[in-house]
Amino acid sequence: MQNPEAPTHYCEIYGFDADWRRARLALLDLTTQDAQLGERLRADVLMPNVGAIIEAFYGKLLADPEARRILDAASLTNLKHSMREYLAHYGEGYCDLVYFEDRLRIGLVHAWVGVPLSLYLCACQVLQVEINNYIDSSIDAAAQRRGLSMFAFKIGALDASLAGEIYHIAQMRHLETSVTRLRDERSRLRYEVGTDALTGLANRASLLPELAQALASALRMGKPLCVIMSDLDFFKAVNDTHGHLVGDQVLRDTAARMGSATRDFDLIGRYGGEEFIAVLQDTSLEVARQIAERVRRRIGDHPFNIANLSLNISISQGIALARDGDSVNSLIARADTALYAAKQAGRNCVSVADDPGRD
């Protein structure tokens, strides 16, 4: 919610332009000719009785339990001072932009501190009654009383309507902010739930449903889809020799290198342990082999420099091309079989499912 103490132009921010302000004044039948009534009201009724009006107003207001809960002694003193200023300038300059700015600011202050709109509007009505009481007791001529009462009613209605407008807008802005925060929080939680904490890649739980959707789409559209299963060679020896902190960094660096060797739209995930999976949509087997080779070289051709160590790491990979009748499990199983074949062939190579040869 906008901080009401921050300098700003509320009419401009919230869309209360000159046409809107003129329309609101016309609706209440407030014209420049009413200004003389305002001067008479302030001079003959409000200022001579300002203390009594304020005490009567707060006497009635504090009979309400909700008002007592909100108001303490310190705030009550400040509010009485503000009320005195308000009554001293009641309805003064009501046609001016400054008047609208001030009333919107006051309404926003009440919204900011948590005063319910219903209580605020009731308080406006209580004040209106007190002003009318003192008009009746201060002015002898009935016609003058009617004129002053009508003017006071119009100003009270204008002020209350502006408060209602700003309350509504403030609540909508607050609601929009809350919804945005909830949406961001939901996105963050979904990211955390679906992301491997160590590598930042998709985890198995989030990757398999995406693979299922991609596979169904590929088979329905008749487009190629390949899966690459990858496994770091002799990774256990890295952990046993250099410790798990070094091993964790190897996994993080592997994920980064795989990301740089694949395309932006490829889905890369950590399948478990030192095993990774890549889902290549709309990708032929030949292109998948090229990508796998690029990953293999990106990892094997450059040492991993970690904690003053220079580690030579290699990776074995198995590729499977989706075919009619494949499920997620059968496709991964064939890629895993190809990966096993790459391990058996000496590691640091790429093997293709149902292909006796290898690169």
Describe the structure.
By secondary structure, the chain is an alpha+beta fold. It has two domains: 178 residues, Globins (Globin-like); 149 residues, Reverse transcriptase/Diguanylate cyclase domain (Alpha-Beta Plaits). The strands form two sheets. It has a five-stranded mixed beta sheet, sandwiched between helices. It has a two-stranded antiparallel ribbon with strand order 4-5. Helix 4 crosses helix 6, helix 11 runs antiparallel to helix 12 and helix 12 packs across helix 13. The protein starts with 9 loop residues before the first helix and ends in a 7-residue tail after the last strand. The relative contact order is 0.09.
What is the total number of structural domains? 2
Rounded to the nearest angstrom, the distance between the terminal CA atoms is 62 Å
Low-confidence stretches: 1-7
User: Mean pLDDT, rounded to whole units?
Assistant: 90
CATH architecture assignment of the largest domain: Orthogonal Bundle
CATH fold-level label of the largest domain: Globin-like
Count the helices. How many?
14
Query: SS-based structural class?
Result: alpha+beta
Shape by Cα distribution: rod-shaped
The CATH homologous superfamily of the largest domain is named Globins
Strands side by side in the biggest sheet: 2-3-1-6-7
Notable features of this structure?
two-stranded antiparallel ribbon; Globin-like; 64% helix; 359 residues; rod-shaped; Alpha-Beta Plaits; disordered N terminus; alpha+beta
What's the structural blueprint in terms of helices and strands?
Elements: H1 10-14, H2 18-27, H3 35-46, H4 50-61, H5 65-70, H6 73-88, H7 97-113, H8 117-138, H9 142-194, H10 204-221, E1 225-232, H11 235-242, H12 244-261, E2 267-272, E3 275-281, H13 285-300, E4 304-306, E5 309-311, E6 315-321, H14 328-344, E7 350-352
Parallel strand pairs: 6-7
Antiparallel strand pairs: 1-3, 1-6, 2-3, 4-5
